[in-house]
UniProtKB/TrEMBL annotation:
Transmembrane segments: none annotated. GO terms for molecular function: aldose 1-epimerase activity; carbohydrate binding. This is Aldose 1-epimerase. Pfam families: Aldose_epim. Keywords: Signal. GO terms for biological process: galactose catabolic process via UDP-galactose, Leloir pathway; glucose metabolic process.
Length: 352
């Protein structure tokens, strides 16, 4: 499986209203290629299922989600499951930023910071389906001025998902036709390439992760807000995924600091931070995630300058797995059992 993402900023034009495509009887929109089946719902422009072939030719659903589509909007934990947050993803430090010398205040919904634009974020909206074929679907959102506090001007966005052979493409187009406004998008997908079927471990640590162009990362404070400092990971240190192809995600589990590497007052184990992508050749695989158990490998290609890696520390084991995932012993999303890979621009870049 390959996963490319593209983000473009284009000039504004008006929307043409095409005939609205219909979901299947299961409530999902399904697109497919020779080796991938992907399913979506309009809520959050969310990917609910991503089936690829495992080493024995079986279908493996490699992303998290719920069987009960109605639960996406009700889940109090709302982990932004495989959706598109916006219009400015991730954190805005201290809920404030400046544009042309005017100071704007955004909603504090994550400690001292704004996360995913506040409580009216795009991952909580029911998007319009504006185009669909057997192998592609487009979701659109019209985000009125100040519908999220402190975000001026209308923004129009389209997100197109398509599949082609072993490739899943994510393309995002967004414009702010009226005034300057913060604009930064990502796709917030959570993976477990074993679909939680490995009887020896449901943790993500036995997946391998290689990011050959990402020696550097953003240093963050206890609330996961970058401080402005850019650090370089020493070989074999906790944040080194650049130097050893095939290194386990849990390669640093025994090192001091691993169990408090992502803030939360020292309670967050593993990763919840931003890695820069430096000097990658065009179309290079910048992130490779793989699992020997399922035989599945995912490669990310992106035009974005970096990627957030989050290893699901804050899942407390109460969330249900889909019926396509898990074993008779495990039906829950336990702590550190998945990985979110989010290609995006520098976190809080608006203030740095
Ligand atoms: C979204 O798609 C519609 C229909 O193709 C198009 O008219 C519009 O320009 C697109 N908007 C953006 C922001 O790309
Ligand atoms: C912002 O303020 C500074 C200092 O007062 C001034 O030099 C600069 O021209 C202003 N920039 C804009 C875009 O108004
Ligand atoms: C997104 O908006 C919802 C609904 O207003 C809110 O409950 C949630 O906390 C927001 N999510 C984030 C990550 O801020
Ligand atoms: C799309 O899929 C349907 C159902 O599988 C099939 O009948 C139709 O021919 C396909 N259309 C195209 C353009 O491939
Ligand atoms: C969907 O389209 C309708 C009609 O154009 C519009 O009023 C509504 O705001 C759109 N919904 C979203 C989430 O953008
Ligand atoms: C934006 O919304 C907030 C409340 O959500 C309000 O305090 C503020 O005045 C609004 N700004 C504008 C320009 O309408
Ligand atoms: C982790 O992967 C290694 C190498 O593929 C394998 O030998 C080991 O048994 C795996 N451990 C678990 C708990 O799955
Ligand atoms: C929030 O800011 C206050 C005041 O600067 C500070 O004492 C506190 O530690 C911060 N909280 C977090 C979670 O960073």
């Amino acid at each position: 499986m390959r996963f490319s993402s593209f983000i473009q900023l284009l000039a504004a034009t008006s929307y043409a209203r095409a005939q609205v495509p219909k979901p299947g009887v299961d409530g999902k929109y399904t697109i497919s290629s020779s080796s991938i089946k992907a399913q979506f719902i309009p809520y959050g422009a969310t990917l609910t299922n991503l089936f690829v072939k495992g080493k024995d030719g079986e279908d493996v659903d490699v992303v998290l989600g719920y069987d009960d589509l109605a639960f996406y909007s009700k889940d109090p934990g709302h982990p932004v499951y495989n959706s598109v947050p916006g219009r400015y993803v991730n954190r805005i430090g201290h809920g404030t930023y400046k544009l042309d010398n005017k100071t704007y205040s955004t909603e504090l919904n994550d400690g001292n910071n704004t996360l995913h634009s506040g409580t009216n974020n795009w991952s909580y909206r029911t998007w319009n389906v504006t185009a669909a074929t057997n192998d592609s679907i487009t979701f659109s959102v019209r985000d009125e001025s100040n519908s999220s506090k402190g975000m001026p001007g209308l923004v129009l966005a389209n997100v197109t998902y398509s599949v082609d052979g072993d490739k899943w493409n994510v393309k995002m187009d967004a414009v702010s036709p009226g005034v300057k406004s913060p604009l930064m998008l990502t796709h917030h997908t959570y993976f477990n390439l074993d679909a939680y079927k490995n009887p020896d471990t449901v943790k993500i640590w036995n997946h391998t992760l290689h990011m050959p162009y990402s020696k550097r990362y953003l240093v963050a404070d206890d609330g996961a807000l970058p401080t402005g400092e850019i650090a370089t990971a020493a070989p074999d240190s906790i944040n080194d995924f650049a130097s050893a192809p095939g290194a386990f995600l849990g390669h640093a589990q025994g090192l001091p600091g691993f169990s408090s590497n992502c803030g939360g007052g020292g309670a967050c184990e593993g990763y919840n931070g931003y890695f820069l992508i430096d000097d990658a050749p065009a179309d290079a695989a910048v992130v490779t995630l793989a699992s020997a158990f399922s035989g599945i490998k995912a490669e990310l290609r992106t035009d974005q300058p970096g990627v957030v890696i989050y290893t699901c520390n804050w899942f407390d084991g109460t969330g249900d797995l889909k019926s396509t995932q898990g074993t008779s012993e495990n039906k829950k999303v336990v702590r550190s059992s998945c990985i979110a890979i989010e290609a995006q621009d520098y976190v809080d870049g608006i203030n740095q």
